[in-house]
Amino acid sequence: MPGTSAAYLDRVARLLADVEEEERVSLLADLADELREIPESELAERLGSPEEFALEYRRSAGLETPPEPDRTVASMIAAVISALALPFGVLVLFSFGGQLVFGPFVLAIEWILARISPRPLRLAWSFLGAALAGEIIYLVLDIHVRRIDGFPAVVIGLVVAAVTALLFFRTTSDQ
Amino acid sequence: MHYVVPVSVHEGEVDPTQVLKGLLDTAVLGALRDNRTYGYDLVRQLREHGFAEIADASVYGTLRRLYRAGLLTSEIVDSDTGPPRKYYSVNEAGAAQLERSMKTWEEITHTMDRILGREDR
Asked: Are B117 and B111 spatial neighbours (Cβ–Cβ below 8 Å)?
């Protein structure tokens, strides 16, 4: 299946993640059949956007339509808190030694904020979390582990940052 | 009994999409009455019979709703071209519902024919 069709199917699957598995698998099998026959240039015209498709499916099936999270009062409050907290996260990242004292707590808070924030802030928290995790590991190795310092510590720090970024993206991407 | 015929933004003009949407449950039951099939094949059949304007997602959703309402039975069947398919067919309750819907439809068309003066043509 071409890339656009596969992305369409994947997006619909995510949007209907809460639907009973047997029904969802059955629907996606039917949709995959259909996507194989529709030229990619006609996808939007024939089926609408994945969001429209999922919404129409829910309406016709009599399923509840989940509220759009970014429009709820709770998500607006979360966005404000997240935006206000972001400078403090950056401050800890560039503090002299503060990373080791506050770093793990800040990292835990970043994880929570990354999950509840709107997309742009979510990305910012993900990058900040990755950088902080890498930095903490580097500092711990460089200062406290005598046999691992300098370049090896940098490499390990970068690997930890990359793994953290991957974890953040995988667990905070749109459901 | 009162029937509401949906009209489009042009006053007095019937919107076929809305009318067909209102008849989709009956059309799905009718298509499955003598013919066990799976979702996408049903979409194709309905399209070939003139339901081209109906959103495909509406057909899939309607199938699910009718199934949950106990009007359809389903069976998982292996496929040569992909994952196993869920085949649907009308059960006894679905057939009874279809009969009632067909009677209602006949009443509507009869009423409309009378109003439009087409009854004896």
From this structure: no
